[in-house]
Amino acid sequence: MSLAGGVVVCAVLAGVMASATPARCIGSDEPSPDPWQDLISPDRPGAATPPSVMDRGVFQIETCFETQNARPPDAPALRTDDFPTLVRYGIGHGLEIRMESNTVSHAQAVTGFADMSVEAKWLARDRPPGRAPSVGFLPSVSFPSGSSDFSAGKVQAGVTGLLGWTLPSGTSLALDVGLARVVESTDSSYVWQVAWQTAFQIPLRREWAISGDLFVGNQRRSIRLGAGERIEHALGLDAGVEYYPNPVTQLDLTIIQTFAEPGSATAVQLGFSRRIGPRARR
Q: Whole-prediction pTM value?
């Protein structure tokens, strides 16, 4: 799918969901609360995940069209198109359950399905706007449910600690640190991966915001023909702009640049998020 095709898909989703926004009851004498005080708070578009969770009975979908061009050394550039999607559901007591996947992927004339992960986010400490951060934890397990060309072929697991601040101005900050046991392919062995991400989001006005992320990953790999192990590093950053056609819908555009050993990659995302339910925990 081309970038133009992704724009069309996101535009159609936005039109359908915006038209489905509940209308205000005419003739009611009771003043209605300002719905913009309960703005949707997706985990996307950045790499860092805030500790906020959905309230009980609230459902949220966060998806995008992503096109990525990887540039390995001594090899042609590789383009991959996919649809990263996250589904969240609040079960109460500061806990939400989640399912996440790149869903359908296309690369080198091959189309298939990606692996799926099952996750749970726990808001262990919820703090109002100010200096003290909210604290959360995000354990996840990824299952080899995808097609052979897009699957790791093995179960992978990890846990991430989440910190989030909301300043009185509305600016939000996030810091994540994660540890995971992962594989690169079906025939490779497990390696430990340590990663951290930091992010900010600044509201410009009621319907607009800008955001940015810095993410770093370290992967410890055994060296069969050498001594000991080596540590491979990856560094990336992204910048995005978010638009809110209504309080329960977010559209976003994000550019991501990753520098890894021994190559680099550039990605563009066109995102759509929609909340269904009474409210979300901020």
A: 0.84
